[in-house]
Each structure stands twice: as structure tokens, then as C-alpha cells.
């Protein structure tokens, strides 16, 4: 099956599941062209730097999905199908249902290219020539250790995202509303969910208080939207975070934990980053700009996205890049990256393939 | 006026520093079985002292304006706070020592400071007696380090208090970070052949390791007991409690009602105990456990699931009321512990504090 044929078949799926981030076949075509330099790179050799080259997709990809965010699973399988691989998907119980629905809606020819398993499948793992793992850093390390060096390994570990606010002069309610959207989506459990909003330390405390109050108000307005079920362990984590903040003398704005989507805003002056527990719990951190590098140290290399509230100075951009940030965007867009974004700073389909170069001038090559 | 207040506060602080008063406090706690009506007044006395002298507790209680009408309304500090702040009513220089939390999940250890270990010693001994654990009628084998090897382990300290008060020999079998299984089995077999009662006490994980490394089962004399504690948090091999108790029972040749479970934590001074696989945990008279609904902060009804909150009158030098993340079901007499909090699986792909620590430990 040629690339374009697969793209045609995936078009409908992209439209059925817009959360995957592709609007349709146009985006898929553009993605192949951007990352593989030619739409037919997977089908034929093409001219490349005075020679020819062709992208070879893995015969079989073994996907290990994370226990909650099913969207990452959809994306991984879709990209595997796009390059033409057979896909074995190790699927944890909480994402089984959405994944089964996703697979059931695939055209038959593509459906045959996906097999689900519900626990580690040693045989399928060994037969695969590419391993894609989503999960915590322990999970990534575990599967990396199991993968022989001749196989392609792509790990997407847990990451954290932040919002750069900088100095506040006026309370920009529109941007605060957009920030509240970024915080609320996926109940703040994703790697694109902001955990902290960074404010320059010299901002007057009265302005910070007004800012936090406005943020609390925006989160409150979203609290009746459809949410996740929050279990007792998760409620306990929110409660613990709030109580610790109060005992440490930080200012806390909070809703009742009896609400469907409880939210928490905590203002603090801290020396280093600390993640929240998710579930619409956000730190507003007053940070000395000159000490930002130190502040970011615990998450060096683990930052995904920086949402920019209004503007961000060049020196701060450089500092974030040096800390390993892989994406900047405006607030309100944090959870919806471009279809062509570099996930964890890497090309998404190019990461899966290997290149075969043909440098023999007097003989043409047919794939 | 201010000077008088400061003087009164200093007087209050020195009350709990005075060895004679500390002994009086111990006596009060140990007499609560006979005088349970005194519990509330002792709670308020200690609460009043701690909220003035423990800075973090002072800050927390200042955010709660409500007048307290019952000991059940005493504000709790989160257990996690011991990792972030000094929870102590005196200066660190005044502490006789501290115990360290395990840091199992996050790698970050909390510290529980104390002015002297005497209150902990008294309640550890009496707590075991209250739970009818026959610690004075058996040779005690502890599958832990001794306090000499691990002076900051509250569990080792408690076991050493038991050992000191026990007329029979006692042994610690983790030496130089190694579980000395062969010498332990040899000594145990000697005790068994002599028909001596034995008590084997250790973490659940140490028992799993023992049964794995020395699969040959044993037959303990009647009157012997097993005490397991700590669950298996953070270990890669976890087994169900029912299955675990069946294995312990058949491995040691004792009935399941000779197996005790201890539920305690470094941040506390008192312990709860249960007996057998389905046992409800009971606390001694100087401590109470409330099962709290985190949504409402109110106590759960019998049969409802909630979070364990301790009120421990033996926690004199830190804070008496501690909110854990452990999940329990309230029963008529006590509580049934479902699980230690850090069993909750992480959700989503956002970074957690545990992962930051893991990354730092493995990559830096």
C-alpha cells in the first residue's frame, strides 16, 4: 500500500478524532513532506544530496501506552499506520475502551494492521523492530533496558509545562481566561498542562493578589464543565498540597473539594520548581529573574512547553532553551500543539524510520 | 502585657521540657484506659501548647478561625509537611535526636525530632501490651537493623525498646545492610528444637525475601507470633495481604491469628495493631484515628472509605494531629486499612515529584 493510499484511509479518522491534532489528509501529507522531504519517501527512492534515499518503516512497532491519556495512544497508532507498519499496542486497562473505539472505526485494511494486548507480550516485543513507550521515567528506563541496540527505541517520558507571565502591569483578564483553559484541559494531567505560572519577583504584591484572584475566578467559571472522576487518593493529594501550602504560609485560593472540578491557586515565593498534583492546582511562583536558572534546575531536560502570557524577553527564551524547553506558544494554545510540532523536540515520523541511501551513479534503483 | 504573655508561653514550653512533667504526661497517657474521659482535656492542653510553639502548626492553625468544640476538630498537619519543614516545638539544637522517614517514593526524607525518647519508649511498650502481642514471652528476632546500625529508624528504636524489656534473648538480623538469613535460620532452629516461643518481627518485604531465599518451611512452637509492618510500598514485588498471610501461616506453621500487623509511621509515636488477615486496626487509649472524608473534612460513617487522620497524645514535641494519605474504612471499633497512599497509580503524563527525585538519583 502506497503512502497516499494510507493517508486517504486515515483522513476520516483524523476528522472523527480531532483531538489527535490532524485536521485531515492535508495535514498528513504536509507532515510526511516536512519530515521525510518527499511524500513518496516511504514508497520510492528520491533524489537527495546528489544521491538517492528512501525511508524504510519498521515492519512492526510495539507501542506501550500510558495509563490515562488516550490521545497519545491514538497519535502513536495513527503515526505507525501512516508509515505502514504493523502495530502491536500494549494497552493499559483505563485506555482500552477509547482505543478499541478508535480501532473499530479504522478502515478494514488498516484495522488488520493493529493488534491489542493487555499485558507485556514478550513474543511481539521481540518480533518488533521499533519500540515506542509512553509513561513515567521508570517505565521508559525499564523498556529501554529491554530493547536491544539494533532496534529503534522512542521513549516519551513524563514532562512538565509552565507559563511565563513576567512582570504584570495590568490584569489581562482575557489572557487569564486562556491560562485557565490550559490549566483545566485534561484535568491538568498531561505533559502540556502548566504546573506553574512564573511572575517576576519585583511585581507588587497587590497586583499579584489581584492576578491570583482573577485566575481563581476564571478557574471557578470552568468548574462546572465535564470533568474526570476524581478518586479519594487524588482528592487526598489535593488536600495535602493545600494544607502544606497553608502551613508554609503561602496564600491559597480554593474551591470546595465537593465540586466536580475543584481548583486551587497557590501563590508562593520559592527557590526551585515543584510540580503540583494536577487537577486544576496551579502555583503562581514569584521568582527572581536572575535566579531562574537555579529555579529550573530540578526539571532541566524535562520541560515540554512554555506558554507565554503576553511577551517573553529574549534572555528568558534563551534560558528556557538551555533548560531543555522544546516548545513556546501563546497561552490558550498549550494543549493544542500544531499538527507538525516536534514531540519532545523530535520529528515524529522520521524518528520511526531508517534511511537507505543509494550512491551508485551508473545503476538506477527500483524499490 | 506582651512580656507577661511571653513569660506565660515560656512557662508552657518549659513545662513539657521538664523531665518530671514528661513523666507525669506518660502517667496520664497510660492511665487513659481507666480514665478515658481525660482524653479530650489532654488533647486540648497539648494542642494549645503546640499551636503556639511549633511554627508550621502555628501558621496552619492561624488560617483556621473556627472555635474548636471537640477534639475531633483539631487541625491536622499533612504528613508530607515533615519533608518540607521542621515540625518541632523547640530549636533543632535542643533535640536529643530525630528519626528519618523512609523516603520510599520520593527519595526525600522527613525528620521527626524529639526532646528525649522516653515517651516513645513508654508508649511503644504499652502499645504492644494493649494489643496483646506477647513480646515478653518469646525470644525476639527482628528482621531489621539494630539502632546501633540505624540510629534514625523509629522502627529499630521501637524494637530495641521491646528487646530491652524482654527477659528472653533478642536479635537483630540485618547487619551491614545485609539480611543474615543463614545465621537467623540456624538460631531460629535452635529455639524451635528447644521448644522456646519466638516472635519474629519485620517489614512485610523482609518476610517475602526470607520465604524466597529460604523456601523450606518452619514449624514455630505454639505461643510464637509474627509481626509484620510497613507494607511493601516502593518494592517491585507486591502481593495481596490475604495471600501474604496464607503464605506466612503455612511457612511458619502457625495459625493466622498469631500474625499481627503494625501500622505506624515515623512521624508518630504510637502504633495501631491488627490481628489476622481480616483484623481491624485498633489504637491504644492515648491515640485516636479518624477516618476523614477529604471532600468535607468530616469523619466518615461506619463502612465508609476515607483518609486516616491520627491524634497521638504521645507526639508531644512535634504535632499531635497528623493527616495521612492512607486509605481506610471506618469500622465500629477501629478501622480497616486498605492501603498506604503511595500505591495510587500516577495518572497522565505530567511529571511528579517522585519522578524528579528518581531522575536526580539515576542521572546526576
Radius of gyration of chain A from CA coordinates: 23 Å
Report the total helices of chain A: 12
| Order of H and E elements of chain A | HHEEEHEHHEHEHEEHEHHEEEHEHEE
Average predicted local confidence, pLDDT of chain A: 94
> DSSP strand (E) fraction of chain B?
15-25%
Order of helices and strands of chain B: HHHHEEEHEHEEHEHEHEEEEEEH
Question: How do the strands line up in the largest sheet of chain A?
Answer: 10-11-12-9-8-13-14
Record the SSE blueprint.
The complex is a heterodimer of chains A (367) and B (364).
Chain A: H1 3-16, H2 25-36, E1 46-48, E2 51-56, E3 60-64, H3 70-83, E4 86-90, H4 93-104, H5 108-111, E5 114-117, H6 122-127, E6 130-134, H7 137-146, E7 152-156, E8 160-166, H8 173-184, E9 194-200, H9 205-221, H10 232-247, E10 251-254, E11 264-269, E12 281-287, H11 292-296, E13 303-308, H12 314-322, E14 327-330, E15 354-358
Helix pairs in contact in A: 1-2, 1-3, 8-9
Chain B: H1 2-17, H2 19-30, H3 39-53, H4 55-62, E1 77-78, E2 97-100, E3 111-114, H5 118-130, E4 139-145, H6 154-165, E5 170-175, E6 178-179, H7 181-193, E7 198-203, H8 204-213, E8 225-229, H9 241-252, E9 259-263, E10 272-275, E11 287-292, E12 305-312, E13 321-330, E14 335-339, H10 353-363
Parallel strand pairs in B: 1-13, 4-5, 4-7, 7-8, 8-9
Antiparallel strand pairs in B: 2-3, 5-6, 9-10, 11-12, 12-13, 13-14
Helix pairs in contact in B: 2-5, 3-4, 5-6
Kindly list the characteristics that best describe this protein.
heterodimer; A: 367 residues; alpha/beta; Aldehyde Dehydrogenase, Chain A, domain 1; Aldehyde Dehydrogenase, Chain A, domain 2; 2 domains; 7-stranded mixed beta sheet; 5-stranded parallel beta sheet; 12 helices; globular; B: 364 residues; 5-stranded mixed beta sheet; 14 strands; 20% strand
Amino acid at each position: 500500500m502506497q503512502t497516499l493510499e494510507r493517508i486517504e484511509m486515515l483522513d476520516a479518522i483524523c476528522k472523527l478524532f480531532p483531538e489527535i491534532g490532524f485536521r485531515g489528509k492535508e495535514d498528513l501529507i504536509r507532515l510526511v513532506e516536512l519530515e521525510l522531504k518527499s511524500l513518496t519517501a516511504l514508497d520510492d527512492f528520491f533524489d537527495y544530496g546528489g544521491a538517492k534515499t528512501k525511508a524504510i518503516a519498521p515492519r512492526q512497532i510495539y507501542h506501550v501506552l500510558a495509563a490515562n491519556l488516550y490521545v497519545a495512544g491514538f497519535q502513536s497508532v495513527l503515526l505507525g499506520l501512516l508509515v505502514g507498519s504493523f502495530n502491536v499496542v500494549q494497552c493499559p486497562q483505563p485506555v482500552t475502551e477509547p482505543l478499541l473505539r478508535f480501532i473499530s472505526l479504522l478502515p478494514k485494511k488498516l484495522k488488520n494492521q493493529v493488534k491489542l494486548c493487555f499485558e507485556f507480550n514478550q513474543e511481539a516485543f521481540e518480533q518488533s523492530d521499533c519500540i515506542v513507550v509512553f509513561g513515567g521515567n521508570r517505565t521508559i528506563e525499564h523498556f529501554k533496558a529491554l530493547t536491544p541496540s539494533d532496534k529503534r527505541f522512542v521513549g516519551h517520558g513524563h514532562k512538565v509545562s509552565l507559563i511565563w507571565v513576567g512582570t504584570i502591569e495590568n490584569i489581562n483578564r482575557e489572557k487569564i481566561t486562556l491560562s485557565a483553559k490550559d490549566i483545566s484541559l485534561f484535568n491538568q494531567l498531561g505533559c502540556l498542562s502548566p504546573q506553574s505560572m512564573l511572575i517576576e519577583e519585583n511585581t507588587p504584591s497587590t497586583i499579584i493578589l489581584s492576578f491570583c484572584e482573577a485566575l481563581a475566578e476564571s478557574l471557578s467559571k470552568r468548574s462546572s464543565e465535564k470533568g474526570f472522576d476524581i478518586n479519594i487518593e487524588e482528592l487526598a493529594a489535593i488536600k495535602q498540597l493545600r494544607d502544606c501550602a497553608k502551613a508554609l504560609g503561602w496564600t491559597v485560593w480554593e474551591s470546595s473539594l465537593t465540586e466536580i472540578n475543584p481548583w486551587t491557586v497557590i501563590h508562593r515565593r520559592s527557590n526551585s520548581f515543584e510540580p503540583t498534583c494536577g487537577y486544576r492546582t496551579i502555583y503562581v511562583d514569584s521568582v527572581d529573574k536572575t535566579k531562574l536558572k537555579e529555579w529550573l534546575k530540578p526539571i532541566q531536560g524535562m520541560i515540554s512547553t512554555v506558554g507565554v502570557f503576553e511577551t517573553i524577553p529574549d534572555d528568558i527564551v534563551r534560558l528556557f532553551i538551555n533548560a531543555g524547553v522544546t516548545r513556546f506558544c501563546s497561552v490558550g494554545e498549550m494543549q493544542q500543539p500544531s499538527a507538525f510540532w516536534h514531540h519532545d523536540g523530535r520529528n515524529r515520523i522520521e524518528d520511526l524510520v531508517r534511511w537507505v541511501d543509494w550512491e551508485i551513479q551508473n545503476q538506477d534503483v527500483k524499490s | 502585657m506582651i512580656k507577661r504573655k511571653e513569660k506565660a508561653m515560656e512557662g508552657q514550653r518549659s513545662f513539657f521540657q521538664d523531665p518530671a512533667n514528661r513523666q507525669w504526661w506518660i502517667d496520664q497517657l497510660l492511665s487513659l484506659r481507666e480514665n478515658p474521659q481525660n482524653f479530650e482535656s489532654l488533647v486540648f492542653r497539648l494542642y494549645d501548647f503546640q499551636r503556639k510553639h511549633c511554627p508550621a502548626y502555628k501558621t496552619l492553625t492561624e488560617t483556621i478561625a473556627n472555635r474548636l468544640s471537640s477534639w475531633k476538630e483539631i487541625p491536622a498537619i499533612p504528613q508530607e509537611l515533615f519533608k518540607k519543614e521542621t515540625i518541632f516545638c523547640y530549636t533543632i539544637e535542643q533535640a536529643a535526636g530525630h528519626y528519618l522517614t523512609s523516603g520510599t517514593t520520593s527519595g526525600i526524607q522527613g525528620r521527626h525530632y524529639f526532646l528525649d525518647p522516653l515517651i516513645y519508649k513508654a508508649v511503644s511498650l504499652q502499645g504492644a501490651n494493649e494489643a496483646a502481642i506477647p513480646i515478653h514471652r518469646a525470644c525476639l528476632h527482628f528482621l531489621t537493623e539494630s539502632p546501633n546500625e540505624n540510629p534514625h529508624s523509629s522502627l529499630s528504636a521501637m524494637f530495641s525498646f521491646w528487646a530491652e524489656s524482654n527477659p528472653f534473648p533478642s536479635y537483630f538480623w540485618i547487619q551491614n545492610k545485609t539480611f543474615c538469613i543463614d545465621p537467623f535460620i540456624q538460631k531460629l532452629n535452635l529455639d524451635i528444637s528447644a521448644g522456646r516461643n519466638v516472635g519474629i518481627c519485620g517489614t512485610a518485604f523482609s518476610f517475602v525475601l526470607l520465604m524466597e531465599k529460604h523456601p523450606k518451611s518452619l514449624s514455630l512452637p505454639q505461643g510464637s507470633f509474627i509481626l509484620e509492618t510497613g507494607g511493601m510500598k516502593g518494592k517491585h514485588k507486591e502481593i495481596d495481604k490475604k495471600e501474604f498471610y496464607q503464605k506466612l501461616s503455612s511457612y511458619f506453621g502457625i495459625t493466622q491469628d498469631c500474625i499481627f500487623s503494625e501500622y505506624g509511621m515515623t512521624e508518630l509515636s504510637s502504633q495501631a495493631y491488627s490481628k489476622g488477615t481480616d483484623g481491624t486496626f485498633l489504637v491504644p487509649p492515648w491515640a485516636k484515628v479518624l477516618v476523614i472524608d477529604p471532600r468535607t473534612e468530616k469523619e466518615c460513617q461506619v463502612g465508609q472509605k476515607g483518609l486516616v487522620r491520627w491524634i497521638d497524645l504521645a507526639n508531644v514535641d512535634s504535632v499531635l494531629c497528623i493527616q495521612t494519605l492512607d486509605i481506610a474504612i471506618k469500622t465500629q471499633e477501629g478501622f480497616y486499612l486498605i492501603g498506604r497512599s503511595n500505591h495510587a497509580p500516577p495518572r497522565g503524563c505530567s511529571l511528579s515529584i517522585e519522578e524528579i527525585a528518581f531522575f536526580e538519583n539515576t542521572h546526576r
